Amino acid sequence: MSLKNDYPVQSADLTTGLARLKQRQGKLTTLTVLSCTLFIATSLSLFIQQDVVFHFLGLTQNISQLHIPLSVDQNLQAYIDHPNYLMSLFSWFGWLLLKVVVSFIGAFFIVGFLKKFRFFLVRFQSFILKFVAWLIAFAVLWSALTYVQYDWNDNEQSAYEDLVHYDRNIQQSHIFQYLQRSETAQPVQAYLLGQAALLHKPQDQDAATAYVAQLVQAERADPHFFEYGFKSEQLWAMQHAIYGKSVTASTAKLQPRIENAQYWSAMIQKILFAISALFLLLSLVLYALTQRFKQRVIRIQRQVHLE
Asked: How far apart are CA 78 and CA 18, in angstroms?
């Protein structure tokens, strides 16, 4: 069957129909990109949803920021204006989503732009060369956005990182040296230095184990332990990092909240997984429809040119 039998219209109507078909193709392409973006967002959310749920319930699974109790010298309180972990997590997730989406979609636009030049058009007839070009474009865009991200963050956490940073030994850190010059109680020092050891990258397990053990002993023996202003959630995170469980009475009381957080985290994970699968299926269907419309546009354009 000829194309004219498929589209029984006059030349002017054929041109009008072609314009409408291109509009529909553009809308489908937009919906495909949007669906892919939502699929990527929900897929990435699976990796951070547990931290988000725990923090919304006032808990943390890992030591992610330094907590300074009120019993500490005010000079140390004034020294640091540490960032909110939850906001930092959302910022990290936002940058990751931005880098994935912009690099993934932008690489296609770059390859499409290069195909306007005959030199690249001829070489991109090979799928392998076109895929290599897409990978290079993806890497360039990702690297550029990563540079912007770290340049943006460098000015925000310098004071916080300077306080807890050390190379090999925790005695090198500013916080250790400050505490040695101060009259801070021994349990408070162990509380702060244990956090600093767990914040170190990689975690300083030896130092952290020693300081957490001091805290456990102090809770059992020091009658003033609960007057220092420690957060039981932070104590639980420290014990969980070292022992994998609660080992004192103050942290054992958090178990119902922890189980509640784990329950909601598991529920949200299942929901996000279902939504991610739905958007993946929708993206594939929309992509197939977009390709079908693209082929129709090409066929009609050839017919118009023949006439």
From this structure: 67
